[in-house]
Amino acid sequence: MKLIRDFYQRDTIEVAEELLGKVLVRDDGRQRLSGLIIETEAYLGLDDPACHTFGGRRTQRVQSMYLPGGHAYVYFVYGMHYCFNVVTTETAPEAVLVRALLPLEGVRTMQNWRRVKGDPEDLTNGPGKLCQALGIDRSFDGASLVGEQIYIEEPSQARRPEKLRIEATPRVGINYAGDAAFWPLRFRLFSEIPT
To answer: Would you say the pTM of this structure is higher than 0.90?
Structure first.
């Protein structure tokens, strides 16, 4: 079952934790690519020096973060990678970065798009990798997450993680953010996941 907009329009930290174990789906009408979300990071808007909207920043790049929760925010980083974020809350420009997936459907296509073979978990174990594997680029920026092309859903009973354990640690790669670099806003799922 696809998540409804109300799921996203809540506290960003809660959404970041509760996205773990859900399934990110990219469906172009011909093929469905999906993966179980196993790592996220919360970005807390105006008061978070690591967030792209810190201090009220409002550039063309971050316009989609000002949309109501339930939209995608996709940005380009280091001149080479796209990163997929879930916009949260109803009014604040906050978001959750999806950092890693466990591939479920369309693994062969993901391998082709990433131009790699081998362990499927290595296909999507980073934010840039998962965007490349699922074909997510800036054209998805601002997309509704309750639409048909990209959305998040509950896992099937067969794929539902068991013995759920979540670890909270500092976020990655934000040394420029001062003390905010140490906030425990990175969430990782540790569980027995049926394959």
So the answer is: yes
